[in-house]
Amino acid sequence: MEVFGKNMATTGLWQSITANVASSQEWVERPVAGSSRVSRGMVLLGMVLDGITILASAVLVTLYERHMGPMAGAKSLWRGTLLQSGTIRILLAALCGFAATLMITSRRLHLYTPARISSFLDEQRLSVEACFTSGLLLTGTLFLVRAQDIPRGIVLITIGLVTIGLSLRRFVYRLLLYHRFERGIGSRNVFIVGTGPEAHALRNHLDRIRHLGYNFKGFIAFPGGCPHFGSPSSDVVGTLDTLFQHTRKHFVDEVFFTAPCEQRGIVKDILEQARAQGVDMRVVPDMYDGLVWDKPIEYIGQFPTIPLHHGQVPEIALLLKRMVDIVFSTLILICILPVLLAIAIAIKLDSKGPVFYHAQRLGKKGRVFRCLKFRTMVRDADKRLSDVMHMNERDGVLFKISNDPRITKPGRFLRKYSLDELPQFFNVLHGDMSIVGPRPPLASEVQAYQLSHLRRLDVTPGITGLWQVQSRQDPSFDSYISLDVTYIENWSVWLDIKIILRTIGVVVAGTGS
């Protein structure tokens, strides 16, 4: 109310003067604010300033490389002794190409649009992106034309100086622009059509972020709306019938329309009148019961989307986990190479069949991969599965037999000390598995899962995990799932380290079978 009263006071005199002439032709023929001519002029000015920045940067870098002052450099350039004649022509052509590329890239990234529509950090990021993209094209062109006479130092330092210069210029411009907005210069007066929750949310947004340069002038009541929702009735200055009379009285530049989708015909009628009156207009869709308020628009290709939720992903911790997997697995495989060779020989001498057993397992998000293990059973063990199903000691979808007749003599030893799983470190290096995580299930097991059990597949499976070190002998499937879910929900790098240390104890104790 305080903001609104202050704004109304500044236009009180004009309201009394223009009350009788608000609908006259004089007001109708007012110049359109933000016309295309002004926009093209701002774009052209931005391009000119970019060109000046590039030229100034190139001159300064060249003089610095040649250890010359401004006067000496100007004389050398005039006499043609600053650089070789062929070199100076190539350099000028390269600078023109760099400037053109930078301007085109900046235009495509909307860096010449009004500053109020993007944030400061986003503008700086796009500036750096435009400079580096153009710089890469410049260096690539010089390499292709084999311009050996052009010092590479001049080119690289020029690109860096241009990046700093453009970023600094846009930063200073924003500071000046925000200062002007605070003084009421260059800001835009706005009406909000509608009095619902979305209209008040928009009003609070404009009042809160003052550097956007918008001054709220009042609500326009919408037929069937709630004129007293969340604010005094004095904030409602008129109705749709008197909208454009009030835009003249309050010198409104822009109208934000927050109408329901059912009133699309009214929006079209108001849009035609806004074009005729020279008033800008925006539509704020009332979608998803307010879920998209204050949400940024992100483009997926050419398709605009509004993100409603972003999950918090510990990217740094996951990167550290992957680095630990790679380093630890590499060191382990190097150290146990003689052990792997001895196990392979023992398996081969004991029974016919391959040394390794490849099992189709499901990894993260249900991706199928080949899990590698040492073979611990006879060659036709899979065909004899139906013969031993009645001996299963686990419940649910799990399958485990303590004295499985299909297990070979070396296999029983390997299983007791979990040595059959050593080849899975190759799966870790490949990225299919991690050292710590839920065990990868069989596809047949997953088919029997309930929906909540699929939580196990949200992460990369591991060689060892919380269940392996805490309840491996527990036949309960619920305990199996519960411990895996507990690990997922409480995961940390420190938890992985503790599980690895406990796994060493389990292996040494020989309780892994």
Describe this protein's structure.
The protein is an alpha/beta fold and 513 residues long. It folds into three domains: 36-182, no CATH class; 187-305, Rossmann fold (3-Layer(aba) Sandwich), CATH 3.40.50.720; 317-509, no CATH class. 52% of the residues lie in helices and 10% in strands. The protein contains 20 helices and eleven strands. Strands 3-2-1-4-5 form a five-stranded parallel β-sheet, sandwiched between helices. A two-stranded antiparallel ribbon has the order 6-7. The protein has a two-stranded antiparallel sheet with strand order 8-9. β4 (254-257), α11 (264-277) and β5 (280-283) form a beta-alpha-beta unit. α6 runs antiparallel to α7 (120-144), α7 (120-144) packs antiparallel against α8 (152-182) and α12 crosses α16. The longest helix has 31 residues, at 152-182. The protein is flat.
